[in-house]
Amino acid sequence: MKPSHFLMAFLLGLSACKREAPPHEEEHAHEQETGKHAHGEDEDETVVHIDPEMLRDLRVTTAPVQQRPGGEGVTALGELGVNEDAYAEVATPIPARVLALRATPGQQVKKGQPLVELQSPELGKARAALQSAQARAHAARQAAERKRTLGDERIVAQKDVQAAEAEAATAEAELTAARSELQALGVDAQEAAGARGTAGFTLRSPVDGTVIERHAVMGQMAEPSQSLFHVGDLSRLWLTVHAFERDAVRIQPGALARITFAAIPGKDFTAKVGFVGQRVDPASRTIPVRLELDNPDGVLRPGMSASAFIPLGEKGATVTTVPAAALQRLENGWYAFLPKKEEGIFERRQVGRGRTLGGDVEVLSGLAPGEQVVVDGAFLLRAEVEKSRGGGERHEH
Description:
The chain is of the alpha+beta class. Helices cover about 35% and strands about 35% of the residues. The protein contains seven helices and 23 strands. Strand 19 (about 330) and strand 20 form a beta hairpin. The protein starts with a helix and ends with a helix.
């Protein structure tokens, strides 16, 4: 081979070696960049960033992770009612006309406080009869006393004394009958002795509490069958739910139940089982269960619909729960979002999801009681995570 040909072959080989080296180096560099990118994704997986302007448009609410009695339980629906041990429906004992109203709905009243003033012709007649009987009885007693004095002095015959005493006894019997007739009208002794007029009387509250309803109207003619006022103590209410017989027989009086109201989302109440019914409804095969709960703030009102989770059997261990909306499903499991101190930053934490307990779900792992989790807005945070993941994949391609 000629020297010129040998030199040309050597240069071509060197050039080929240089062309093969860069693809290997680029591949190695790409692997390093990919590794760094993947590492960056791992670090960002637990943090969700939301722009402050977007955050203001989102309705984000939080709730604490709760710990409550665990074990087996049953969920039952019911309606909130008054505490019947401190409740009264006030009606007139006799037909009467409404003269004046002394209490308004929502007013706090004490036992014995006037509610309404009424007027009844029937009461007027009974009072007049009582007054006449009282006058006759008084006169007969005085006459009998005079006859006894004259009889002792032998001024009158003994038979006249006996006749006067018999007349006094008759008058006393008539007085007793008049009092009984007045009492039968349902008006108490104080009202019977009132001096406002022979036909007027006042209905008073029989309990301490709140005027829940008022049906009395000025000038109307009220009947005994018509309730004019509903008065009750609303600081403690009764919730009646209906549990299937197989569950009701395992409910223990005194057990603590968790109550949720559709009208008050995100807030739980605690109630105590006060009574388990003694009879099964033949149509629904359920037994009524009475739950008693405190209402110190007055936020609860009779008639509200509620859901109660009642433990069954003996007391057992506790379970950790969050509202169902707080857990969001992503491709590799269930997650909760926890707000950080910095505005617009949330931690995304994977949790173990357990049973559905009414409007809540059991958390098996990943959260501790007392931690705050996002409830309203968790779905939008999940959508933001999925959006960012989709954007990352498109960027790589």
